[in-house]
Amino acid sequence: MHALYAWEGIPLEAALEAIWRFVRQAPTKRFDLTPDLVYVRGQYLVMANRDGHRESPPFHGWRIGDGAISEGQALLGLVSAVWRFGLSFVLPWWLLSWQSHMGMLPGKAHPIMWPRDLSESVMADLK
Known about the structure:
The chain has 5 helices and 5 strands. By secondary structure, it is α+β, with helices and mostly antiparallel strands. The protein has one domain. A hairpin with a 3-residue loop joins β2 (37-40) and β3.
């Protein structure tokens, strides 16, 4: 599991641009080295979408605070991701229910799509 946790950090858009810059160097190899989770306290939580489909959005993001998810919800998302990506054990009931809840927070999660240039190379890779 690759995860980044920060007390303070750069805005979401800058973090995503740093990830895309890294992936652009070798898209077919480097995407698998991107973080499974990026959590900047009080700002955002980004979780990898490891559904096995390269055409899917590679990440889902949640803003923290101001009508979005709370810091506590973000921390539970962090624990869930560590359990799922890092420990690879069956999630306990309380995390299973939380994972289901994270997907149902209306209007809270947003898919983070591939940038156009990477989307084209990812799709070309699939052919």
